[in-house]
UniProtKB/TrEMBL annotation, chain A:
Upper lineage: Eukaryota, Metazoa, Chordata, Craniata, Vertebrata
Entry annotated with the keyword Transferase: yes
Name the record gives this protein: COQ3 protein
Recorded GO MF terms: 3-demethylubiquinol 3-O-methyltransferase activity; polyprenyldihydroxybenzoate methyltransferase activity
InterPro entries recorded: SAM-dependent_MTases_sf, UbiG_MeTrfase
Name of the gene encoding the protein in the UniProt record: Coq3
A GO cellular-component term linked to this record: mitochondrion
PANTHER family, per the entry: METHYLTRANSFERASE, UBIQUINONE BIOSYNTHESIS O-METHYLTRANSFERASE, MITOCHONDRIAL
Keywords for this protein: Methyltransferase, S-adenosyl-L-methionine, Transferase, Ubiquinone biosynthesis
Gene Ontology biological process: methylation
Gene3D superfamilies tied to this protein: Vaccinia Virus protein VP39
CDD domains listed in its UniProt record: AdoMet_MTases
Pfam families: Methyltransf_23 (PF13489)
Automatic annotation (TrEMBL), chain B:
InterPro entries, per database record: FAD-bd (IPR002938), FAD/NAD-bd_sf (IPR036188), Ubi_Hdrlase_CS (IPR018168), UbiH/COQ6 (IPR010971), UbiH/COQ6_monooxygenase (IPR051205), UbQ_mOase_COQ6 (IPR000689)
Keywords: Cell projection, FAD, Flavoprotein, Golgi apparatus, Membrane, Mitochondrion, Mitochondrion inner membrane, Monooxygenase, Oxidoreductase, Transit peptide, Ubiquinone biosynthesis
Protein name, per record: COQ6 monooxygenase
Similarity remark: Belongs to the UbiH/COQ6 family.
Pfam families for this protein: FAD_binding_3
FAD-binding domain segment(s): 338-422
Gene3D superfamilies in alphabetical order: FAD/NAD(P)-binding domain
Gene expressing this chain: Coq6
Domain of life where this protein originates: Eukaryota
Swiss-Prot/TrEMBL cofactor(s): FAD
GO biological process: ubiquinone biosynthetic process
Cellular component aspect of the GO annotation: mitochondrial inner membrane
Amino acid sequence: SLFRLTVARPFSTSHSSVDSKEMKKFQLLAHKWWDEEGEYSALHSMNDIRVPFIRDTLLSMSSNYHLGNPLSGVKILDVGCGGGLLSEPLGRLGASVTGIDPLEDNIRTADQHKSFDPVLASRIQYKSSSLEEIVEDSMETFDVIVASEVVEHVADLETFIRCCSQVLKPEGSLFITTINKTQLSYILGIVVAEKIMGIVPEGTHEWEKFVPPEELEHLLESNGFSVKTVNGMLYNPLSGSWSWMESTSLNYAVHAVKLGAQGQSGTTDAPSEMDIQQCSATAGTAG
Amino acid sequence: SSADMAAVRGRALLAPLGARLRPQPRAPLRSAASAPPLYDVVVSGGGMVGSAMAAALGHDIHFHDKKIALLEAGPRKEYDHMPDSYSNRVSSISPGSATLLSSFGAWDHVCSLRLKPFRRMQVWDACSEALIIFEKDDLDDMGYIVENDVIMSALTKQLDAVADRVEVFYGSRAVGYTWPLPSHSCDTSPWVQIELADGRRLQTKLLIGADGHNSVVRKEAEIKNIEHQYDQSAVVATLHLSEATDNNVAWQRFLPTGPIALLPLSDTASSLVWSTSHQHASELLSMDEESFVDSINSAFWSNINHSDFIDSAGAMFRSALSLLKPSGTAVRQLPPSVAKVDPDSRAMFPLGMGHATEYVQHRVALIGDAAHRVHPLAGQGVNLGFGDIACLAHHLSAAAFNGSDLGSLKHLLKFETERQRHNVSLIAATDVLKRLYSTSLAPLVLLRTWGLQVTNALPPVKVRI
């Protein structure tokens, strides 16, 4: 039944990026992911802009193009993959995708959904895990990390970003989509979206945890990333579709690149050796 | 509940109410673990429209790694050698359709076989002098008369060229379809299951129904079809003209019994499409060749249906019009006269109109005559189908490049909206024209006479048509 309770692994250390209160919210909706017209319809239609954004950014950075499989050969980590809404299109475009989510029920839904398509089943691997738990075994493994609609749910954003840096190859790309912390995002993102129009299930978001782009940029740049693009996004509830916009006062997307060994475009500090070791040590003891 | 959510959107996304799940498959030789082969797209129906759809997708770069199947009930026909005589089934191909066919390399084959471009269309009324002439100002062709066999030959060649992506199943008729439940709620397969007459089974993410006006896909999907049988049949034949001529004009005359059209095939031959009552059609088929030819010439030349009243009223209107717009009316040409008919080229088929209320459902799309059927008087039939293909292929290509599930209603609905918007007005107008011209009652004749004359004199209206 929908309300079957799973004993979630306790993630209570303060260094963890997973917030157990957040997990409980998603538990109840673990079976609703793939109803295109249901609670997650706005995430389904977000694919119409976030997939081309990721695809075109990566295509513009590479010189190879495989007909019919633009992302062939690219290893992608989808953090907070939920039911696999973003993993699947990326898999269809040819990428090898690892999707992780701390909630087992989400992973179960995602696994079941991909199982009917042999191509997807072979290209996508799902794992019930937090980001920290995979760091040790996945140092500099991925070409791309996508963290879409995730950072507004994590407990410790700086830890999260550091771990992203560790599992990403040098010059690898990090894509984030999230919600700004503004008066407008409170009115539209919480009051209207959750309480009035039901675009987002009520209680999904806490305005306190929204992340202004300036703060995100600062955290990224001080942890070895160079921010390349910041784009505002707008959801039209009447048409159910997303579009890009100048202003980042509501939703926005970020593309950042992990600096290479030499550290180009010298505006950022490379992470110190001690920082990296501390993060791995923490990951080893978490959970 | 999920049903409420679907209702909020205002469109039933669930598979048709009462979707039938067929009983367990009779596949004793197969283990339960081996699922039928899964295709990305299956096109049901290997006629001009179905074959062109499969070829268009097969040549699309975003479908490079996809698997497509085309199901055709008939046997594979070899077209390497075109007979000298013309086939009696021809189509008027618009420039837009030619563009679609050249987008996957089929138009070159058509041109290297045979076709007849025409520059002008002259349409007139048997009950009056009113006529309308369509021609392009520039020296471009208005359209092309092409035998259906020629088009099929070109399509078959282009399908062979992408045989690694497109598998054509000849002699394969689909006898059953099983529709998936909305994918979020089930543990059963989310794909469309297809059962063939020989017991083979296929699965697909998207089923495209191109199986003609009696579409099985449409019926099995329980999509309501608005249809109407006209009390008319079309008589087709291949004709030889009395004398060689440039023959780059398509002629159509509206008789009270129905329109008669002469479509150019070469400088000496034309194709006949004569829509008339079932009885008259049978008579035309059974009479001897000389009488048949006489009937055709008489239909084009005789003024027997004119009445003095209509003639003078028409003439008055024409002079009034020329005061307002002196350059309005173009020169009337005389249609060619026919000398003989190709033996064994006479045939007839019944006419009707049809329009599906929906073109798409979850994992299903209808194109061509399966979606809409028109009277041949507008020469549009296959062009509407090619227009459907251009639109659907565009949306599927974009969906593939976005990594979307090909059977998702999101982009299928965009196809439906665009095509219904385009098709409905044309189908309705064709139907109205058909009914308007099926009478010799004076008031209606006068109305259409004046209408035709005004249309002829007004460039913007003509261009729109």
